[in-house]
C-alpha cells in the first residue's frame, strides 16, 4: 500500500456546516479510503484512478449542514504468487483496514531463485538468492487533530551469490535489517499550530563471506574471509509547524541520532594454510548527530506563487573505536559541523503551465574508516590508508523547470546543475600486478554535472479525440542527459576528465494499452511494453583487464550504450483475480550496467585474478507468470 509513514489514514473527518476547508479534508479522507483498496500500487495491474467526481458523489450522500463522521470500517487483502525462469518462486500477502479509530497494515514477502542464465544460455554461477521481508503498521486516531502510529519492518537477502569484480563463484552474502518507528502527529483545534514527533531505531547487518581460493591477488589464498558489519541506530525528531497567517507556514525542527558500527573479520587459509587475520573492512565507530533547522513557505497571488526557504545546521561527532586486528589504530573523536540550505519557488502562470526553480546544498561527513590513521585490506587484497585530516564532502544543486498539463498531455522539463566539492575519494599510491595501494583524500577538484531531465505522458485516445469507451492507451517516457560532466580533479592517468561511474544519459520509453471497466471476466486487461536505454559510462574499474596500460581503479574505460526491453500482460480473469505474465530482456542481450568484462568468450578479464569464472553479465531473457487476488 502506498502510504506516507508520517501521515496515515484519517479515520474520522467532520464536515462542519459546509465549511470549504473541512470539505477539502473530507475529500482527502475519502480519497485515502478509496486508495486503500489498492494495497500495493506498484503491483496493482489495473490501477484505478480516483477522479474528483467519484469523491463528490460520495460526499453527496451527506445532507447539507449535517455533521457526519466518516468512519470506513473496512478490511482488504491482497495475495500474489509467481514463478518463472531459473527456479523463481515468490509470493506476497498483505492485509489492511480501518475500524473506528484504528487502522492497520501487515504484509509479508518471500522468494528465491537459482543461478540465472545469460544471453545464449550459459549459466552465471553464484547468482542465486533468497529473500524474506515483512512490515506492519498500526495507527490510532485520537481525535480530529491528533493520531499515533507505530511501524515495524524487516527485510533481508540470504545466501546470495556475489561475484564482484573477480567473478567470484565462492562468495556469498547475508544482508538484513529491521527497524521500528513510533510517531505522534497532532495539532491545535484552531489549526494555527501542529506538530510531529517521532522516535525510531534501526539495525542493519552485512554478513559477507568473500574467500579467494583462486585469485593471485591474495597470497596465501583463502577458503574463508567473512566480514560481519553491524550498524545500530536510534534517533528522534521533533517538528512543530506554525501558521503565522493564512498564507504562511513555518516549520521548526530538531533531529538527534546516535549510531554504533561494530565489525568482525575471520579468515582461513586454503588447504589449512596459515593466513594472517586482518582488520575488518570498516573500523569500529560511534557517531552522534544533532541538527536544527527551519523552513518557511509563503504563498502569494491567490496561491499561484509559492516561495520556500530553509536552513539546517548540523553538529556531529565521529568517534573511532578499538577495532579487532588493528593494533596501530589510535582511537579518538573528531567533530564536524555544517550549514546547508534549500530555497525554491513555483509559479502557476496559466492553468496548464507551472514554472519552478530551486537551489540546495548538502554534505557528507567522513567515516571512521576514512579518518583512521591506519589501513584496511579489501577482500580483493587492495589496501586503502585512512586520513585523520579529512574534511566533510559538500554538494550544491540548482534546478529550473516547468510542468505542462494540457488536455491529454503531461510534460515536465528541468535544467539542473550539481557540484560536488572536496569529495572524499581514494588516490592510488602504487599499483602492481596483484595489489593496489591507495590513500584517502579530499580531492580539491570539483565534479560538475549539468544536464536536462524530461518526463512525459500522453493519453493517446484523448489526444486524437477518439471516444474509446472502456479502452485505455497511454504512452510515457522519462530521460536525462548530462551535457557537461567533468571531473576537474581527474588525474592524467585516468585518460579522461569525464566524471566516472555516472551515465552520460539514460532514457525510458513505454506504452500501455488495454480495457478497463468492462464488468466481465477476461474483459479487463492491459499490455505494457517499455525499454530502458543505459547511456555511456566512464568507469575506473577495479577489474583487472587484459588491456595494455591499465592502472586499476584509475584508468577509465567507456561503456557503450545499450537498450533493454521488457513487457508485461495482465488480465482480470474474475472479480478480484488477476493473471499476469512478463518477459524481461526480450531480445536476450549480453550486457552489464557497470562491469567492463562480460561473461563471454574471449573474456576481457585477466583470468589470473578471477575466482572461478570470468567476467559478469546481467540476466538473459526471463519469463515470469503469476496470479493475484484481492478481496
Largest sheet: 22 strands, antiparallel, barrel
Which word captures the global form? globular
- The CATH topology of the domain at 175-444: Maltoporin, Chain A
The CATH architecture of the domain at 175-444 is: Beta Barrel
CATH class of the domain at 175-444: Mainly Beta
- Helix coverage percent of residues? under 10%
Report on the structure:
The protein is mainly beta and 631 residues long. It has a domain of 270 residues: TonB-dependent receptor, beta-barrel domain (Maltoporin, Chain A), CATH 2.40.170. 5% of the residues lie in helices and 54% in strands. The protein contains four helices and 28 strands. The strands form three sheets. It has a 22-stranded antiparallel barrel. Strand 26 and strand 27 form a beta hairpin. Helix 1 packs across helix 2. The two termini are 14 Å apart.
Q: What's the quick description here?
A:
By secondary structure, this protein is mainly β.
List the helices and strands and how they pair.
Elements (H helix, E strand, L loop, with lengths): L19 H16 L16 H8 L14 E11 L3 E12 L2 E12 L15 E13 L5 E15 L10 E16 L5 E17 L12 E24 L2 E22 L15 E16 L4 E16 L11 E19 L2 E12 L3 H4 L3 E3 L5 E3 L7 E14 L2 E13 L1 E9 L4 E8 L3 E13 H4 L7 E17 L17 E11 L9 E10 L2 E3 L17 E3 L2 E13 L2 E8 L37 E9 L1
Parallel strand pairs: 15-19
Antiparallel strand pairs: 1-2, 1-28, 2-3, 3-4, 4-5, 5-6, 6-7, 7-8, 8-9, 9-10, 10-11, 11-12, 12-13, 13-16, 14-15, 16-17, 17-20, 18-19, 20-21, 21-22, 22-23, 23-26, 24-25, 26-27, 27-28
Helix pairs in contact: 1-2
Please name the defining characteristics of this protein.
631 residues; mainly beta; Maltoporin, Chain A; 22-stranded antiparallel barrel; four-stranded mixed sheet; 5% helix
